Amino acid sequence: NMKHKKIVLFALTLYILALFYFLFFCRINSDNGMAYNEWLSTSINIMPLKNVFIFLTTPYITPSYVFSFIKNIFGNIMLFLPMGYFLPCLFNKSSKVKIYIIINLFFSLFIEITQVIFMLGLFDVDDIILNVLGSVIGFYLFGLIRKIKFNCGKG
């Protein structure tokens, strides 16, 4: 119904504002002292799963390195879980996940490109993969919750 869509749209707006703050605005004053070209050459990863490979092949792994790796993996997945709920609620409750994958792929790509252009973060293809994975998990998780909720109401 229309009231539910307005609430979801409001929640999506708050979510995107929080996401932008976390990914862009809280990093604005972080000057790394590098020239843009130098920084750019070290800030782009286009090799899928490069960080996983580095993690698995590093001979000496400290607990803080493990924590950082896990935080990166789960953080990127968790960051996009809500998109799996918001988009189907707003546009079409169709079970076709492909359109939501494409939307989240472009949204995540926009975030990564913006971060690297304005020196606010790295461009990492792993982040894109994990963000899209998070939205897909969210899509199926919220679909399962809806199904359970619907089935529980019948009993």
What do these coordinates show?
The protein has 155 residues and is mostly helical. Helices cover 72% and strands 3% of the residues. It contains 7 helices and 2 strands, in the order H-H-E-H-H-H-H-E-H. The protein has helices at residues 2-23, 36-41, 50-57, 63-80, 83-90, 98-117, 125-154; strands at residues 44-45, 123-124. Strands 1-2 form a two-stranded parallel sheet. Helix 4 crosses helix 7 and helix 6 (98-117) runs antiparallel to helix 7 (125-154). The mean pLDDT is 86.
What do the pLDDT scores average to? 86
Number of strands: 2
Termini Cα gap: 24 Å
Widest sheet: strand order? 1-2
Strand content: under 5%
Shape assignment:
globular
Poorly predicted sequence stretches spanning 5 or more consecutive residues: none
Radius of gyration: 18 Å
Percentage of residues assigned to helices: over 70%
Query: Main sheet, how many strands, which sense, barrel?
Result: 2 strands, parallel
What's the order of the H and E elements?
HHEHHHHEH
Helix/strand structural class: mainly alpha
Number of helices: 7
Sum up the structure in keywords.
two-stranded parallel sheet, 2 strands
Short overview:
With 155 residues, the protein is mostly helical. α6 runs antiparallel to α7.
